[in-house]
Amino acid sequence: MRYTVSIEIARPREEVAQLLADPEHMPKWLRGLVVHELLSGVHGQLGTKSRVVMEMGSQQMECTETITRREPADLHEIPPEDVVHFEREIVTKGMWNAARERLTEAGPQATLWTSENEFRFSSLPMRLVGLLMPGAFRKQSLQHMRDFKAFAEHGQDVREAG
Fold first, then answer.
1. Given this model, what pLDDT does residue 162 score?
2. Using CB atoms within 10 A as the burial measure, which of 59, 99, 150, 152 is most buried?
3. What CATH number is associated with residue 83?
């Protein structure tokens, strides 16, 4: 299963890239995040592995996240024509996901965030979820992007939303 979603954020691209890359900010916009624990490497850098626990409703999902691309490595003074790439693979029982994030300038104070997602399911229960509810994955990706936009533009914290 594959899909692409995008959102425009009314903040400069360099600022958006730095906010996305900072692990201290993740709980403020990544709804359902319980744990994001570094296993090896330096957070956000190529090859880094982390243990991630997400809560969805009454269920928790534990997975391993591996950073497969981060360009440029330095998120300061990025030339306007350059595209910022964050890519990762997420593996959990019965599912593999690749997320390919691109940040492009949409203006001097605006950033276009495009997220390409690919899922592969290896267990029957996950295959059924993917087959019967493909829109749920896209909807969740858009929710995370909207939450990040609200955080980046207005400082809104999903933990305070009630």
1. 56
2. 152
3. 3.30.530.20
pTM: 0.90
> DSSP letters along 36-70, please?
EEEEESSTTSTT-EEEEEEEETTEEEEEEEEEEEE
Please tell me the predicted confidence (pLDDT) of residue 59. Answer: 87
User: For residue 57, is it within any domain?
Assistant: no
pLDDT tens track for 121-147: 888 777 777 777 778 889 999 999 999
CA–CA distance, 121 with 70 (Å, rounded to integer):
25
Q: What span, in angstroms and rounded, lies between the C-alpha atoms of 12 and 49?
A: 28
Count of domains forming the chain = 1
Cα separations in angstroms, 23 against 3, 17, 26, 33, 131: 25, 12, 5, 11, 33
Domain that holds residue 109: 2-31+75-160
